[in-house]
Specification:
The protein is an alpha+beta fold and 590 residues long. It has four domains: 102 residues, Sandwich (Immunoglobulin-like), CATH 2.60.40.740; 136 residues; 111 residues, Sandwich (Immunoglobulin-like); 112 residues, Four Helix Bundle (Hemerythrin (Met), subunit A). It is built from eight helices and 30 strands. The strands form nine sheets. Strands 11, 12, 14, 15 and 16 form a five-stranded antiparallel β-sheet that branches. Strands 21, 23, 24, 25 and 26 form a five-stranded antiparallel β-sheet that branches. Strands 1-3-6-5 form a four-stranded antiparallel β-sheet, with no helix packed on it. Helix 5 runs antiparallel to helix 7 and helix 5 runs parallel beside helix 8. The two termini are 55 Å apart. InterPro entries: BatD. This is Oxygen tolerance.
């Protein structure tokens, strides 16, 4: 009997050992040596489904694709074979020897880890010139170009950078995303909004291409000498034709991932000439008009007027200082209010800027506002120009007369404007008073008395009606649920609504809103927010399959829309669908 027990225990241990030995979890790479211009595919493969998959930190690579999941089930001779794979596509950031660290997963309550893998990244390798190779075809048919309006501008002269993506007629692009964004060091920069991407026909190196303008940027160089414009890099999914055809004779397409870059560009910025530079020049470059105006030229003492110094035209309007007014000392002057009405397009800044001064005269008399000058560098003639304002006389009609002796208070100048006090600044307390008797005013039986007495009785019916309506509203369970659902949808989608029109910011905010809603409603953590888990929890909450499918579709849209052309109308539709779906889930969730 003891022998049988021992044998049973041994068999049990052996069976559990064999069962555990059958579970595999391993990492595989497409190559262990690659050029910096190549891609690396990493697969994490297991033969039994698990939970809480945690990939390694790809710190030396840029994740350009994935994670993609693939599940395979097969039966061979009555025996089931199962495989699940998480795939990542990586682009190396620099050359060197790197390690793909361990990935972790939990299977049947046990923790499994992959073995680290070493890879070597070399300098760029030449792509094979194979007409049947999808990567080669993509590299030949996709080009990102940065077109610069002028590579030898003057300091503070506007130039434009237009990024165009050229695609050959027999090649398609399904989506793209930006990897590296230029930061434009040593430039003042502003992006020009592109409301909708438009495909146009053009030529690239003499051949017919289609192209789309991805970005327009206006730059004003702030330093002289050689300045670098950093490259814009994109990860693109390309559809290329193959030599294979379907049963109807149509050519089959193949997908390839390609990284394209506009490359670094060097701008040689010329300094402004020193010869003929005016003493009052503060850096204005362009074509400008200048004037000084006042809201009135005659007024009384202690009244106020507005004196405005204004520059209008085209040029670096936001990048220089306006000249200061020089006023007589008897005019009290407050700090100016700076106003800008400037728009920026591919021709640079256009509009007007101004400083508006509030001026208060203290004494009667005539006060000149002397003419002042404004100097700028004219790009058309490549010379300096100076504009002088006209002298303005302020006539103070009524007010106290100045008592300053020989001092000329109408002369301009002085660093500090004096604040002059009136002669009746100090008033004395009267010592003689005339007392008059007042008739006592009794509150009893007054209008206020009767109002205070009757109002509580009048309020009783109102309180009863309000209470009845509240009880009726509280009893309306379905209606309350609808109102609560709508309120919750608006709460979580408020940030997304603010970002409407800005594609990337909108879809990031929308995805975050959907995740936060699920975390608050289903009480799950961010690490558990997989689509399978969401479907499972919503199904348990008796949410209809149609609503669940709609919610998952919106999540997928958020992931894809950031890398594909999207219009304002489509963003508005996605926002409305998200609000409707959140509201519907909250109504159905048990």
């Amino acid at each position: 009997m003891k022998l049988i027990k021992h044998i049973a225990v041994i068999l049990l241990v052996l069976s559990s050992t064999i069962a555990s030995a059958q579970i595999t979890f391993e990492a595989k790479v497409s190559k262990k040596k690659l050029g910096i211009n190549e891609r690396l595919r990493v697969d994490f493969e297991m033969n039994k489904d698990g939970d809480n998959f945690n990939p390694p930190d790809f710190s030396n690579f840029t994740v350009v694709g994935g994670p993609n999941q693939a599940v395979s089930n097969s039966w061979i001779n009555g025996k089931r074979s199962y495989s699940k794979t998480y795939s990542y596509f990586l682009a190396p950031k620099r050359q060197g020897a790197f390690t793909i660290n361990q990935a972790v997963i939990e299977i049947d309550g046990e923790i499994y880890k992959t073995t680290p893998i070493s890879v070597v990244v070399t300098s760029a390798v030449e792509a094979p010139k194979d007409g049947n190779n999808a990567d080669y075809i993509a590299s030949e048919n996709i080009h990102l170009v940065a077109e610069i309006s002028d590579d030898k501008p003057f300091l503070n002269e506007a130039i434009t950078v237009v990024y165009k993506l050229y695609v050959s007629p027999d090649t398609g692009v399904s989506n793209w995303r930006e990897i590296d964004n230029p930061k434009y060091s040593d430039f003042w920069s502003q992006n020009i909004d592109i409301r909708q991407l438009k495909v146009q026909n053009g030529t690239y190196k003499g051949e017919d291409y289609r192209y789309v303008i991805l970005r327009k940027t206006v730059l004003y160089p702030q330093k002289t000498g050689e300045l670098e414009i950093e490259p814009l890099s994109l990860d693109i999914t390309v559809e290329v034709p193959t030599n294979r055809r379907d049963i109807f004779g149509g050519r089959l397409m193949s997908q390839a991932h390609k990284t394209v870059s506009a490359g670094r560009r060097t701008i040689n910025v010329k300094p402004l000439p020193e010869q003929g530079k005016p003493a009052d020049f503060t850096g204005a470059v362009g074509d400008f008009n200048f004037k000084v105006t006042t809201s009135k030229t005659s007024l009384n003492a202690t009244e106020s007027l507005q004196a405005k110094v204004e520059v209008s035209g085209s040029g670096n309007l936001k990048l220089f200082q306006l000249p200061k007014l020089n006023l007589p000392s008897s005019l009290e002057v407050y700090e100016p209010e700076h106003l800008e009405d400037v728009r920026t397009n591919l021709n640079g800044m256009q509009g007007r800027i101004s400083d508006s001064y509030t001026v208060v005269p203290q004494f009667k008399g005539k006060y000149p506002i002397p003419n002042i000058s404004f100097s700028y560098f004219d790009l058309k003639t490549e010379s300096y120009k100076t504009i002088n304002s006209n002298e303005i006389i302020i006539d103070v009609l009524q007010g106290p007369t100045n008592q300053t002796g020989n001092q000329d208070i109408t002369a301009a100048g002085g660093d500090k404007q004096r604040v002059v006090l009136n002669s009746n600044q100090f008033a004395f307390i009267k010592t003689d008073t005339n007392f008059t008797s007042t008739k006592p005013n009794h509150f009893f039986k007054s209008i206020g008395f009767w109002t205070a007495l009757i109002m509580p009785f009048l309020a009783i019916p109102l309180v009863m009606v309000f209470k009845k309506n509240k009880e009726k509203r509280d009893a309306d369970v379905f209606g309350n649920k609808i109102r609560k659902a709508d309120k919750l949808a608006k709460k979580y989608l408020s940030e997304a609504k603010k970002a409407l029109g800005k594609k990337e910011a909108f879809y990031i905010a929308l995805e975050k809103a959907l995740h936060n809603y699920l975390k608050a409603t289903l009480h799950i953590e961010t690490t558990e927010l997989s689509k399978e888990k969401i479907q499972e929890l919503l199904s348990k909450g008796q949410v209809s399959q149609q609503t669940i499918t709609g919610f998952i579709t919106i999540l997928k849209n958020c992931e894809l829309a950031r890398y594909t052309p999207i219009t304002q109308v489509e963003m508005q539709q996605d926002y409305e669908r998200a609000a409707s779906t959140i509201s519907q889930i909250d109504k159905e969730l048990k």
